[in-house]
Fold this protein.
Amino acid sequence: MQQPDARTVVTDYVTLLAAGELDAAIALFAQDATWTYPGGLALSRTWRGKEEIFGEFLGQVGALFAADGLPTITLTHVLADGLQAVAEWTTVGTAANGAAYENRCLGVFTVENGRITAVREYLDTHHVAQTLLA
């Protein structure tokens, strides 16, 4: 049985995440996946393993938003070549401190055997610091 290509897996991941279908989104990651978050923020480092990525990293990010201002994620582009796909999305929400948050994000995803094995994310970390971490 042929595994889905990188473009399909990444598109499915962002779409599921945006729809709030977290369990299905998590299922698209390999157990030992990594997620590298840029910059000099407390969140900036390479997160290792599914539990760390979704339990610690993305869990911390979610807690930075107001309960009634959880971010909406809109996928804008996906380009793929072989095992890699580059996805661009926007994230819009309200920070826990009431600040308006809107950021354009880009992720370079590696997909092997139908599972995401690595993500390198790029975004405006200065905006993150000024809105979510202020």
